[in-house]
Each structure stands twice: as structure tokens, then as C-alpha cells.
Amino acid sequence: MKILITGGKGVVGSSLVLELMSRGHDVWVCDLQHSHEEKYFRCNVAKYRPLLQIFEEHDFDLVYHLAAEFGRWNGEDYYEELWMSNVVGTKNLLRLQEKFGFKMVFTSSSEVYGDYAGIMAEDIMEKVEIKQMNDYAISKWANELQILNAQLMHGNQVVRVRIFNTYGPGEYYSPYRSAICLFIYRALHHLPCTVYLNHKRTSLYIDDCSVALANILDNFKAGEVYNIAGSELHDIKSVSNMILAYLNKDDSHIEYREEEPFTTKTKVPDLSKTIRDLNYQPKVTLKAGIPRTIEWMKQVYNLQV
């Protein structure tokens, strides 16, 4: 298939490019930065005309729409970019899909489950009124609603995926990245770090995420939505402890707090549909994934620790 990945230079996108290429697909990338690569477009998805030019010149079978501003606090600090990239950008892709007829996979987020306290099955939104707890979550849910409307109005063929807490090599540090990325970088540099005690999560290694996303091509069901997550439920302190133990460091740089505001306390995903439809079998445990991520980060930041 000829495939376009928006946000293909991001953490998930970069890994997905390699996975799809390894399966023999013709993969093209759209992102914000400059690049010398032949199959690359520098393009902001919030701008319709540059996107239109891409689709006028190329006939894509499928688009993985990953381009988005990421993270709760990033969404608060840079809300203009969040709403333009996430919501207007997705609307642009839906309009282009109406015109050119390609299939699409849209990456949503576990954040859409908001204040829900139970097991997070994909259909829970149809049964329970849920409050999204930050702008990032609201933008992702607004996108899902846009997609549902486009499916009804125009027959857009879209699969939505809700990704839970991805981490791993390729995730460069910024204050807005995953907890595991923050913990590793700050432990390596002995920088102050906050660990919240009363939250539970699953953490998804990047390779497992990319395989699950690529498997959608083998069983594309327009209108479906899938959780993609790791299988190990853990508290936040336990992953911090694993990182410190691997680095043989103490926790003198860490401040422990009870919980983080404006985010879900516990995320327990239901993976049964993903396992059934996408042949999903997460392979990389935290015990294996955290050391791999630490060693990658030591290398890219040239650290001898």
C-alpha cells in the first residue's frame, strides 16, 4: 500500500515508519520540520492548502493521522497550537478524505476516558457521561466526535485508536513527555523530579505500539475503535524505583506527592477487542523496556553513568 503518516517524525510516527517499511509498504511522511528525505513533505496539518497539494499530486491508499500537539500541560501552555493542530488539522484530513477517498487511522488517546474509574472498554462513551479533564483530552475527544459525524455524513472510512502511555527509544526529553522519559532523563542528570503516588497506569513500549498500529492494515474495519496499551498495571512509583535500581541511584532528587491534578487517577484498559481483531500480543515488559530506554538515552545524550 502507499501510505502517508502525518506526524511521521514524532515518537510513534518514526517507529511506525520503520515497521510499515519492513512489511513492504510505500511509506511517505508529513511533518513540521525540514528534511532531506525523498518521501517527505514539510507541512502543517492545520493548513488546508499545503495538504491539498500533497493529495492532488499523490494517490494514497491510507493515511495514519498522528500529527498532534501532545500532552496535558503542553496543551495548557500552548493551547493555540493544540487546538489548531489537533482539531482543525483533523478536520482538514476528514475533508480531504471526503474528496480523495483514502482510508484513515486516527490516533486518539487514553486521556479521552477522563474521570472514568472503571475498566476502560472502547464502548464506555456510549453508556456513561464522561468528563474529560484537560484541553488535550478534550481536543482528542472532539476529534473522535468529528470522525463519527464524518462517518455518518459522508461515509469516511476511519479506524480510531486510543493509545495508553507509550514510552521507549526515540522519545527525546522535554517537560511534556511520558513519565518514564522524564524519570530517566532527570535521574541521569540528577535533576528535581516529582513522582505521584496514587495513580496507576499501563506503559506501552514503542515497538509494541507500532506493531499494533501496523496490524490494522491486515484487518481494517471502518468505524472501529481500539485501545492500544501495555498489559502490566503498575503504580507510578514502581517504574521510578525500577529506573533508580538500574542506575544504582537513590531518590534524593525526587519529591513524592499524593496525586496529579486534572488527570485520570487509574487507567485500566480493556484490550480484548484489540487482541481479537489486531492479533495484539505486547511482548516487551517493563523489566526489559526500561533498561533499553535508559541505554538509548545514555547514548543519545552522551552520558557515561
What's the structural blueprint in terms of helices and strands?
Blueprint: E1 2-6, H1 11-22, E2 26-31, E3 40-42, H2 48-57, E4 62-65, H3 72-77, H4 79-100, E5 103-109, E6 119-120, H5 135-154, E7 158-163, E8 166-167, H6 179-188, E9 193-196, E10 200-202, E11 204-205, H7 206-215, E12 225-228, E13 233-235, H8 236-247, E14 254-257, E15 268-269, H9 272-278, H10 286-300
Parallel strand pairs: 1-2, 1-4, 2-3, 4-5, 5-7, 6-15, 7-12, 8-11, 9-14
Antiparallel strand pairs: 10-13
Helix pairs in contact: 1-7, 2-4, 4-5, 6-8, 6-10, 8-10
Number of strands: 15
Task: Name the strands of the widest sheet in spatial order.
Answer: 3-2-1-4-5-7-12
Describe the oligomeric state of these chains in a short phrase: single chain
Radius of gyration: 19 Å
Outline: globular
Q: Characterize the biggest β-sheet.
A: 7 strands, parallel
* Unreliable sequence segments: none
Count of DSSP-assigned helices: 10
Taken in chain order, the helices and strands follow as: EHEEHEHHEEHEEHEEEHEEHEEHH
- What is the averaged pLDDT score? 96
Span of the ends, CA to CA: 44 Å
Please identify the structural class as seen in this structure: alpha/beta
Q: Percent of residues in helical segments? A: 40-55%
- The share of residues in extended strands comes to 15-25%
Give an overview in words.
By secondary structure, this protein is of the alpha/beta class. It is 41% helix and 19% strand. The strands form five sheets. A seven-stranded parallel β-sheet has the order 3-2-1-4-5-7-12, sandwiched between helices. The chain has a two-stranded parallel ribbon with strand order 6-15. Helix 4 runs parallel beside helix 5, helix 6 packs across helix 10 and helix 8 packs across helix 10. The protein is globular and about 55 Å long. The model has no long low-confidence stretch (mean pLDDT 96).
